[in-house]
Design brief:
The chain has 2 domains: 3-66, no CATH class; 78-177, no CATH class. The protein is 48% helix and 18% strand. The chain has helices at residues 45-50, 67-89, 91-105, 110-119, 127-133, 137-142, 149-156, 161-178, and strands at 3-12, 19-27, 37-43, 51-54, 63-66. Strands 1-2-3 form a 3-stranded antiparallel β-sheet. The chain has a two-stranded antiparallel sheet with strand order 4-5. It is elongated. The protein binds zinc ion (ZN). Zinc ion binds at residues 13-15, 17-18, 44, 46-47.
């Protein structure tokens, strides 16, 4: 078993002394799905330093991007991870999760806890899986993710401006991180511009 390759794009690199080559790859065995991936190279020592081929926009052809843009996105991604940590470390969040745990403990049965959580979109699994995984209310509460905190506030009927502001910042970082990188115009057929 191997890989089938088709050349999708080939053309001069930005400085003109080398080439950009993009191949479309699929697995060559009969059970392979329609999935494909791209393999690309920049055959130019100058341009390989400053550019990369990216395919961050599903449904679009691959594109040439500046490495500085790739680095910028990496720093957005780091900031997003950091903000998740910051949020989960907020004293207000600790208090909120503690309140959630006490509220859950008031429900006698696991099914009742599950119903309450599910009403606020805080139970991602089916009841059977929930039964298997649930150990105690406090662990459950502390394993929730930052994006589930609005559901927790909803369930408890409380709101906290500091948490809401921190979550808004998280959403902004996510949007920056998910923005497709700007394509460098190359004039090469098969590359997005
Ligand atoms: Zn070049």
């Amino acid at each position: 078993m191997g890989t089938d390759r088709t050349e999708e794009a080939r053309g001069p690199c930005p400085c003109g002394q080398g080439e950009v080559v993009v191949e479309r790859c699929t697995a060559d065995h009969p059970f392979a799905s329609a999935d494909h991936w791209w393999q690309s190279r920049i055959d130019c020592p100058n341009c390989a330093k400053g550019y990369e081929v990216e395919d961050d926009d599903p449904g679009q052809a691959p594109k040439l991007v500046l490495k500085t843009e790739v680095a910028k996105r990496q720093s957005w991604t780091q900031a997003w991870h950091q903000q998740r940590k910051t949020i989960m470390g907020l004293p207000a969040v600790h208090l909120l999760l503690k309140q959630l745990a006490s509220r859950l403990d008031q429900e006698k049965s696991l099914a009742a806890k599950y119903r309450l959580l599910a009403q606020h979109h805080l139970a991602s699994s089916a009841l059977a899986t929930f039964r298997k995984r649930f150990t105690d209310s406090s662990s459950y509460a502390h394993n929730l993710s930052p994006t589930e905190l609005p559901g927790v506030m909803d369930l408890l009927g409380v709101s906290d401006p500091a948490i809401t502001a921190a979550l808004q910042k998280l959403q902004q970082l996510w949007a920056e991180m998910k923005k497709p990188l700007p394509a460098v115009a190359t004039g090469i057929a098969g590359l997005a511009a």
